[in-house]
């Protein structure tokens, strides 16, 4: 069991090396990157915007409902919303959601190509299939921090609307809370995490799709396994990066 | 010409190819036949470099595949066309994009030159109105023809076909067989076809090898296969009722 896991991990890192070997012609790669940006980034904006807006609102309401002591200032609603959204919700929670949405899409599309021998066709033609399939996803996901930036903005906007229009505090109090004890490094921390999660989101689902064996049923299983491992890796890396960047 | 010498290949301790040696000749349709599990696909994939043999040599016109550098292998692969069993067309691309793919990847032709070449090969496989259709919108026979067009678009020296007739009706199968044979002769390429379809054997079997349990049991042509004395070949050839009756008629004179 342990040997099997270690073999898989070794294979995953060897895959990284292969991704950058024998690059595909730029004229072809350009089109592939644009297609991946459309499939992975643009197509994710709707669901990210929806979740971020409403979860931001819920964070604000729950914070407000827990501030029962009249001595605690109302600006804490804005402060708590900002901290929750920027530090954890946008980078980590959205990445877990994307492990389901984006990750399943990547695993199933590459897995289907494996099952239908399209990957063999690429290899027989002399194309480095890992470079052709995974490299454009990696490049496209360099724009993932942009998605998380939108998520941060909409999460805080949702919190502001919920707080102000729900009658939990004034707009000035909420905005004051957002500005309270602002540490710019928290933004850097969030985007460093996001960048690492982007690499995970591009490669682990690709790995599970590329190396899968079997037929249509196994494509479904590979998508599920891919989601589990992508989520586990994101959560582990979240812990490690938080320890390294904030606690030390 | 492709030559294999004493090729052996095992998976998880099970020997699938047990020392195959043969020559696939240029300008001829070379058939690998045998029952399911005989090692046909493994041999084909070993020829293609998808599987590395545990022992033995694969030579493409005296060029030893497994002694080549990565660049040489990549160069050689541009000389290879492959028609997969399930066609393996890229389902996110139109028919035209599928056929144009090898040209875009490996040549520096202009867009109009590529379009001319794609039009030429699609016409050659009798597909003239399918340029903008997706693979899912065309029949299995048409998909096979697109796969053949994609395989020959870059003027390959070697053409491999894995079960080109599987899933096709008898008439379409004959069309595909004849198309492969015509292309082989027209471009003087080395064609290797993996099949268990006796109709294909009768139509285009110019150089046939018969595999059983990973061993090359018999070699011959479509003319000599009916006179083969090897019991495994007899069992394979006369496995269908039609051929059994033909044999009975032949024996009765």
Automatic annotation (TrEMBL), chain A:
<feature type="transmembrane region" description="Helical">
    <location>
        <begin position="40"/>
        <end position="65"/>
    </location>
</feature>
<feature type="transmembrane region" description="Helical">
    <location>
        <begin position="225"/>
        <end position="246"/>
    </location>
</feature>
<keyword id="KW-1133">Transmembrane helix</keyword>
<feature type="transmembrane region" description="Helical">
    <location>
        <begin position="183"/>
        <end position="204"/>
    </location>
</feature>
<keyword id="KW-0472">Membrane</keyword>
<keyword id="KW-0812">Transmembrane</keyword>
<feature type="transmembrane region" description="Helical">
    <location>
        <begin position="138"/>
        <end position="163"/>
    </location>
</feature>
<dbReference type="GO" id="GO:0005548">
    <property type="term" value="F:phospholipid transporter activity"/>
</dbReference>
<dbReference type="GO" id="GO:0043190">
    <property type="term" value="C:ATP-binding cassette (ABC) transporter complex"/>
</dbReference>
<feature type="transmembrane region" description="Helical">
    <location>
        <begin position="85"/>
        <end position="106"/>
    </location>
</feature>
<dbReference type="InterPro" id="IPR030802">
    <property type="entry name" value="Permease_MalE"/>
</dbReference>
<dbReference type="Pfam" id="PF02405">
    <property type="entry name" value="MlaE"/>
</dbReference>
<protein>
    <submittedName>
        <fullName>Phospholipid/cholesterol/gamma-HCH transport system permease protein</fullName>
    </submittedName>
</protein>
From TrEMBL, chain B:
<feature type="domain" description="ABC transporter">
    <location>
        <begin position="2"/>
        <end position="238"/>
    </location>
</feature>
<keyword id="KW-0813">Transport</keyword>
<dbReference type="Pfam" id="PF00005">
    <property type="entry name" value="ABC_tran"/>
</dbReference>
<keyword id="KW-0547">Nucleotide-binding</keyword>
<dbReference type="InterPro" id="IPR003593">
    <property type="entry name" value="AAA+_ATPase"/>
</dbReference>
<dbReference type="InterPro" id="IPR017871">
    <property type="entry name" value="ABC_transporter-like_CS"/>
</dbReference>
<dbReference type="GO" id="GO:0016887">
    <property type="term" value="F:ATP hydrolysis activity"/>
</dbReference>
<dbReference type="GO" id="GO:0005524">
    <property type="term" value="F:ATP binding"/>
</dbReference>
<dbReference type="InterPro" id="IPR003439">
    <property type="entry name" value="ABC_transporter-like_ATP-bd"/>
</dbReference>
<dbReference type="InterPro" id="IPR027417">
    <property type="entry name" value="P-loop_NTPase"/>
</dbReference>
<protein>
    <submittedName>
        <fullName>Phospholipid/cholesterol/gamma-HCH transport system ATP-binding protein</fullName>
    </submittedName>
</protein>
<keyword id="KW-0067">ATP-binding</keyword>
């Amino acid at each position: 069991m342990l040997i099997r896991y270690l073999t898989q991990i070794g294979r995953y890192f060897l895959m990284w090396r292969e991704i950058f070997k024998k690059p595909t012609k730029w004229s072809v790669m350009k089109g592939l990157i644009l297609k991946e940006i459309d499939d992975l980034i643009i197509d994710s904006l709707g669901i990210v915007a929806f979740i971020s807006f409403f979860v931001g609102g819920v964070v604000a309401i729950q914070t407000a409902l827990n501030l029962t002591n009249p001595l605690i200032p109302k600006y804490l609603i804005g402060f708590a919303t900002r901290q929750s959204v920027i530090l954890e919700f946008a980078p980590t929670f959205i990445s877990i959601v994307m492990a389901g949405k984006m990750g399943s899409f990547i695993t199933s599309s590459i897995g289907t190509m494996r099952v239908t021998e399209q990957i063999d066709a690429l290899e027989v033609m002399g194309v480095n299939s890992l470079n052709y399939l995974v490299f454009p996803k990696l490049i496209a996901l360099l724009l993932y921090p942009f998605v998380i930036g939108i998520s941060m903005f909409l999460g805080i906007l949702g919190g502001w609307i919920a707080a102000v229009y729900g009658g939990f505090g004034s707009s000035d109090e909420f905005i004051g809370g957002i500005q309270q004890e602002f540490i710019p490094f928290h933004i850097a921390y969030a985007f460093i995490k996001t960048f690492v999660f982007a690499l995970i989101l591009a490669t682990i689902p690709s790995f599970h799709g590329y190396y899968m064996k079997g037929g249509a049923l196994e494509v479904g299983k590979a998508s599920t396994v891919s989601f589990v491992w992508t989520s586990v890796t994101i959560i582990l890396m979240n812990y490690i990066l938080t320890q390294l960047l904030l606690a030390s | 010409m492709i030559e294999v010498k004493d090729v052996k290949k095992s998976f998880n301790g099970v020997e699938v190819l047990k020392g195959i040696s043969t020559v696939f000749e240029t300008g001829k349709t070379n058939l690998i036949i045998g029952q399911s599990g005989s090692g046909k696909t493994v041999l084909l994939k070993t020829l293609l470099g998808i599987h590395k043999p545990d022992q033995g040599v694969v030579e493409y016109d005296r060029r030893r595949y497994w002694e080549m550098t990565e660049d040489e292998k990549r160069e050689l692969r541009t000389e290879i066309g492959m028609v997969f069993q399930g066609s393996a067309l890229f389902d996110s691309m139109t028919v035209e994009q599928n056929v144009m793919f090898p040209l875009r990847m490996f040549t520096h032709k202009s867009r109009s030159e590529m379009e001319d070449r794609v039009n030429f090969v699609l016409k050659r496989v009798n597909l003239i109105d399918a340029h903008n259709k997706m693979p899912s919108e065309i029949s299995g026979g048409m998909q096979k023809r697109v796969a053949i067009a994609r395989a020959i678009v870059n003027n390959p020296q070697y053409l491999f076909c894995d079960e080109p007739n599987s899933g096709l009706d008898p008439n379409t199968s004959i069309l595909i067989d004849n198309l492969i044979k015509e292309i082989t002769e027209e471009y003087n390429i080395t064609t290797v076809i993996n099949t268990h379809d006796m109709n294909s054997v009768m139509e285009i079997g110019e150089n046939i090898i018969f595999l059983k349990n990973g061993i090359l049991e018999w070699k011959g042509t479509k003319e000599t296969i009916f006179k083969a004395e090897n019991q495994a070949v007899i069992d394979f050839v006369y496995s269908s009722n039609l051929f059994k009756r033909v044999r009975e008629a032949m024996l009765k004179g």
